[in-house]
């Protein structure tokens, strides 16, 4: 596993994923935005933990799928991402997509935030979704050994 990216469970089991593939993917996406992966930490948790984090650090009183803490230094991506596996599962069901696909979308969503893409302002959600789709295409290309830089 790439030492620059940590994958930690808190109160949940670590998802069964190809973490080496994920690291290659994250680095490829970062490179597309002219960034270099520094230190990234992903913490997987349940809804109650993400609600606690959301209240404590952002003063938001609601569940969410991911919270991204940006600690970037120029082009160097650094940050912590907290992902609720419960909300990922709920969102996958609501959107009619697979849990695995939704989890990948959320994992890269945090990286895209660190690359400077927002999703709260007018029209930004659509821009984020377009970038998520592009990133998922890169994932599939890496997975199928057809990725070209």
Describe the structure.
This protein has helices spanning 19-32, 47-58, 85-95, 99-114, 124-143; strands spanning 5-9, 36-45, 66-70, 76-84. The model has no long low-confidence stretch (mean pLDDT 96). Strand 3 and strand 4 (76-84) form a beta hairpin. The longest helix has 20 residues, at 124-143. Helix 3 packs across helix 4 and helix 4 packs across helix 5 (124-143). The chain has a single domain (5-143), classed as Collagenase (Catalytic Domain), CATH 3.40.390. The chain is globular, with a radius of gyration of 15 Å. The protein is of the alpha/beta class and 149 residues long.
Quick recap:
It is built from five helices and four strands, in the order E-H-E-H-E-E-H-H-H.
Keywords summarizing the entry:
19% strand, 149 residues, 5 helices, globular, four-stranded mixed beta sheet, alpha/beta, Collagenase (Catalytic Domain)
Note the main sheet.
4 strands, mixed
Order of helices and strands: EHEHEEHHH
**What's the CATH first level?**
Alpha Beta
Whole-number mean pLDDT: 96
How many E strands?
Answer: 4
Instruction: State the share of residues found in helices, binned by percent.
Output: 40-55%
The CATH topology label is Collagenase (Catalytic Domain)
- Report, as a whole number of angstroms, the end-to-end distance: 21 Å
Number of helices in the DSSP assignment: 5
Helix-strand category = alpha/beta
Q: Which stretches of 5+ consecutive residues score pLDDT under 50? A: none
């Amino acid at each position: 596993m790439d030492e620059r990216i940590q994958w930690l469970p808190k109160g949940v089991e670590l998802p069964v994923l190809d973490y080496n593939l994920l690291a290659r993917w994250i680095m490829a996406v970062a490179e597309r935005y002219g960034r270099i992966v520094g230190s990234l930490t992903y913490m997987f948790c349940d809804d109650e933990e993400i609600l606690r984090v959301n209240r404590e650090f952002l003063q938001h009183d609601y569940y969410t799928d991911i919270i991204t803490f940006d600690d970037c230094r120029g082009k160097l991506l650094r940050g912590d991402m907290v992902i609720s596996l419960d909300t990922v599962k709920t969102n996958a069901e609501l959107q009619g997509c697979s849990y695995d696909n939704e989890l990948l979308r959320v994992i890269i969503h945090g990286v895209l935030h660190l690359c400077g893409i927002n999703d709260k302002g007018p029209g930004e959600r659509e821009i984020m979704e377009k970038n998520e789709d592009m990133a998922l295409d890169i994932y599939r290309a890496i997975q199928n050994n057809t990725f070209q830089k």
